[in-house]
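lol forgot to send this yesterday, sorry. struct tokens for the thing we talked abt
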């Protein structure tokens, strides 16, 4: 008999209770007050000669905290991807785009984000791109070596490369940016899952963020931003969202006349801007807790007193404030060989304890709605598939909770102590999804 409590999936009391379940989203009086001020003030949107106040504040705060000079509010992260690509294509002109039709996208991502890529290219060039899903590395981000060798042979067919922040890592954004310069192709960084994290290297010419609810780093309602260091691209981005009108004199982007463009109509309203701003400020605190939690969890899973051989792996953080959309743990082979458990056994066990743990996004090459884009490409997708098979992907609300490293430690001790009874527990049960 062991003194360690029985896992909840075997009939024990769950580690997470109503009292210890982290609040999500974290909200307070500031959100209500700022929304009421805007509602009562009557200016719910800004443009041209009616400058947007809260959108302008949000854009400056987000640009500063992410290390970019300019931000442009957008309705969501998908349209923010479209806007970044569009502005870069517009700036290059139509003759550069002749003979090019391909966009290299992340295989392991939220596949609906590819819609933003398609929209951005189609709006600017009047034709849809051919998407090329690029396999992921074990840290779940786009494989830069695959991109380098693809560009070495096919760069003249490529319009753009769109790497994505994924599961707590930025990936090789500086390398993608350098490859874009070397091969003269557009690079846009889909940083929807980056939130208030800050990339320390040289960024892509444009990047985009999302502020939509769910597990995002800064949940608000629909909302997003496009970021850039380049004042000319910033002016184009503003004109694109604001029906063709470039930045005015009270805009954080330097004043510029923008020539005629087939502009979109995707302004961010004052209420989503203000809500995202307050959530962003909360995320500045969350990123400190998350950074510390990630350090504690990395030492927990490497502790030989818990696991004689490490059965879980967390990718090394690649920034001072790494992205915190989720905690990503990958099951090593030792999970099977030393504990006799499968990744699904572990996900099911964690879910029963009240932890929102799942396998994560389906890669594009396995997604029934999108997999046709990978068909016929001579690219190695085994690693992308492996990430999902072996992932334990824990919702951001846990990673932000200072109690979570202890909670996880308790659950993992239960797993080790009762491993014989947990063997095969995942079989015949549905995959946990939140
Ligand atoms: C990687 C990634 N990119 C882009 C998006 C799109 O963001 P939004 O939902 O704000 O349109 C998402 C949404 O979940 C995402 O996960």
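and heres what i got for the seq, position by position
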């Amino acid at each position: 008999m062991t003194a360690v409590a029985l896992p909840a999936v075997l009939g024990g009391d769950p580690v997470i209770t109503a009292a210890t379940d982290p609040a999500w989203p974290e909200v307070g009086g500031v959100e209500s007050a700022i929304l009421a001020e805007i509602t009562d003030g009557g200016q719910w949107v800004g443009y041209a000669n009616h400058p947007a106040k809260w959108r302008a504040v949000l854009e400056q705060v987000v640009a500063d905290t992410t290390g970019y000079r300019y931000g442009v509010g957008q309705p969501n992260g998908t349209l923010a991807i479209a806007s970044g690509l569009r502005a870069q294509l517009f700036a290059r002109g139509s003759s550069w785009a002749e003979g090019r039709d391909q966009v290299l996208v992340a295989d392991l991502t939220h596949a609906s984000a590819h819609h933003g890529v398609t929209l951005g290219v189609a709006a600017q060039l009047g034709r849809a791109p051919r998407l090329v899903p690029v396999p992921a590395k074990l840290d779940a981000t786009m494989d830069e070596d695959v991109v380098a060798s693809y560009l070495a042979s096919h760069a003249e067919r490529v319009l753009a490369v769109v790497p994505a922040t994924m599961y707590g890592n930025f990936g090789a954004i500086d390398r993608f940016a350098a490859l874009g310069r070397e091969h003269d192709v557009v690079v846009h960084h889909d940083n929807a899952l980056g939130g208030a994290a800050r990339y320390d290297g040289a960024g892509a010419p444009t990047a985009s963020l999302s502020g939509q609810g769910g597990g995002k780093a800064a949940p608000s309602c629909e909302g997003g931003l496009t970021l850039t260091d380049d004042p000319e691209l910033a002016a184009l981005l503003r004109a694109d969202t604001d029906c063709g009108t470039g930045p005015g004199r009270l805009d954080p982007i330097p004043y510029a006349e923008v020539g005629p463009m087939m502009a979109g109509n995707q302004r961010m309203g004052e209420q989503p801007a203000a809500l995202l701003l307050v959530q962003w400020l909360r995320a500045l605190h969350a990123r400190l807790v998350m950074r510390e939690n990630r350090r504690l969890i990395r030492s927990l899973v490497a502790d030989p007193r818990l696991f004689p051989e490490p059965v879980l792996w967390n990718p090394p953080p690649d920034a001072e404030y790494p992205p915190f959309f989720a905690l990503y743990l990958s099951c090593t082979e030792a999970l099977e060989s030393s504990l006799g458990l499968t990744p699904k056994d572990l996900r099911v066990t964690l879910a029963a304890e009240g932890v929102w743990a799942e396998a994560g996004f389906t890669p594009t090459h396995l997604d029934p709605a999108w997999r046709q884009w990978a068909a016929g490409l001579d690219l190695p997708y085994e690693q992308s598939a492996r990430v999902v098979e072996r992932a334990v992907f824990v919702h951001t609300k846990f990673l932000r909770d200072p109690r979570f490293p202890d909670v996880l430690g308790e659950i993992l001790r239960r797993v080790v102590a009762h491993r014989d009874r947990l063997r095969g527990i995942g079989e015949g049960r549905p995959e946990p999804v939140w």
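Residues 180 and 426 are 44 Å apart (CA to CA). anyway ping me if u want another try
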